[in-house]
Design brief:
This protein has about 450 residues and is an alpha/beta fold. The protein is built from 16 helices and 16 strands. It folds into two domains: about 1-95, no CATH class; about 105-445, NADP-dependent oxidoreductase domain (TIM Barrel). The strands form five sheets. An eight-stranded parallel barrel has the order 9-10-11-12-13-14-15-16, surrounded by four helices. Strands 1-2 form a two-stranded antiparallel sheet.
């Protein structure tokens, strides 16, 4: 009998075992049991791994404990330990684990500018979905969900002052982390928020007052990252606001200053004014590759990173919309959320539903090859693009979860054939830089 055991989710190991002929109420007739019996020789169930004077004898079938990291169901500590004892009693007494639930090298990134820096998870939990339009959010269920994401290593949350209760939910969440989790979990949690003011006169008192509101709502003395948005480039008040934000950073109220939805020209102006922004959050997906046409080059020259949203297009880049025809009323899934409606318009601008189906078919083939969902492939492709530090996946807290799929991003490696096939279909669409304009211009068109 051949058994595949996942010591490391990236490297399945094939182990040949012997089928036992007696009945076992716990393991069944066909058993991979490591015990000393006449049917299973000791040399077949155990192996010694060694190098020089160093050696350890282990069972050839290992109990992998990645599944305790979140995404496979809630783990009760006492029940889990009892289960481990049963495995040991059955002779399966070698356990494989890690100090963290994800590959730390791949899962985190540092965004920085000069002495300012912030380490964050590369997959960011987007909280736009708490603002209404995605289903009713129950406060307690939402915070419980945030804890599950953090426990699974997905501990960076993105929100805004205009995202309904998002900042308040984060404040409740961070307090529970302080009370209920060990210090090492708290050290990994990051709260990225945005300030989206009307383009009025940016005085020091006005800027500070708004930042203080976010600090109070999020219950933190210092915001990990403040991402600034500006609606009207004809009003140069954005430079005044950013200078005040930089002063507040120097005073300890903000750890890092960043941007959201700024174009390449304005990013250059901001940097020329010696404002130390660490990142710019922009829309970026396989359909919308505009950030790679102008923005990424400036980012690589200056060290500014991109944090991307719309990367799974509100869920359009998923099996749910594969082989569907939205032109026929009621024939496919409904576009019943603000994000689905928004990104369907982006599909229409790019090349239409037929071309989008071709893209989904290509992504589905790659996803099946790697044993992951389409959305995981979509996120990984963008994370691999130049200057991209992190990508957003929206979370419908308390309503649905994608912890396992999100963590799968860190172990996925797209090969050259995968990348070429995605690039080929992506390039068949219209040039959105010409159709829409640079990053963020969709918010400023008349």
């Amino acid at each position: 009998m051949s058994t595949f055991v996942h010591l490391n989710p990236l490297k399945p190991i094939k182990i040949t075992t012997t089928t036992t002929r007696r009945n076992s109420p716990s393991l069944g007739r066909s058993s991979a049991r490591c015990e000393s019996t006449a049917e299973v020789a000791t040399e077949k169930r155990l192996i010694k791994v060694s190098n020089g004077n160093d050696s350890v004898e282990i069972c050839r079938i290992l109990n992998g404990m990645w599944q305790t990291s979140g995404g496979w169901g809630r783990i009760d500590r006492n029940d889990a330990v009892e289960a481990m004892l049963r495995y040991t009693d059955a002779g399966l007494s070698t356990f494989d684990m890690a100090d963290h639930s994800t590959d730390g090298e791949n899962s985190s990134v540092v965004v920085k500018n000069g002495k300012d820096y912030l380490e964050m998870c590369r997959v960011v939990n987007g909280m736009w979905q708490t603002s209404g339009g995605w289903g009713k959010i129950d406060r307690d269920n939402a915070v419980d969900a945030m804890l599950r994401y953090a426990d699974a290593g997905l501990a960076t949350f993105d929100m805004a002052d205009i995202y309904g209760p998002a900042e308040d939910l984060y404040g409740i969440f961070i307090n529970r982390v302080r009370r209920e989790r060990p210090p090492e979990v708290l050290e990994k949690v990051r709260g990225l928020t945005k300030w989206v003011p009307s383009p009025v006169k940016m005085t020091r008192s006005f800027v500070e007052g708004n930042i203080d509101v976010s600090r109070k709502r999020m219950d933190v003395a210092c915001l990990d990252m403040l991402q600034f948005h500006w609606w009207d480039y004809s009003n140069s008040g954005y430079l005044d606001a950013l200078k005040h934000l930089t002063d507040l950073k120097d005073e300890g109220k903000i750890k890092t200053v960043a941007l959201t939805n700024f174009d390449t020209e304005r990013l250059r102006i901001i940097l020329e004014n010696e404002i130390p922004v660490v990142s710019n959050q922009v829309q970026h997906s396989i359909v919308d590759m505009r950030p790679q046409q102008k923005m990424a080059e400036l980012c690589q020259q200056t060290g500014v990173k991109l944090i991307t949203y719309g990367t799974v297009m509100g869920g359009l880049l998923s099996e749910k919309f594969l082989d569907t025809n939205l032109a026929i009323p009621f024939s496919g899934p409904s576009l019943n959320t603000p994000s689905l409606q928004k990104y369907k318009r982006m599909v229409d601008a790019w090349g239409g539903w037929s071309l989008f189906q071709t893209l989904l078919q290509v992504l589905n083939k790659i996803a099946r090859k790697h044993g992951v969902p389409i959305s995981t492939v979509a996120v990984k492709y963008i994370l691999d693009q130049p200057a991209v530090a992190g990508s957003m996946i929206g979370v419908r807290l308390g309503l649905s979860e994608h912890i396992k799929d999100a963590n799968a991003v860190f172990s996925l490696e797209l090969d050259e054939e995968d990348v070429d096939s995605i690039r080929d279909v992506s390039s068949r669409g219209k040039d959105l830089l010409r159709v829409i304009g640079d990053c963020g211009d969709e918010y400023r068109r008349a």
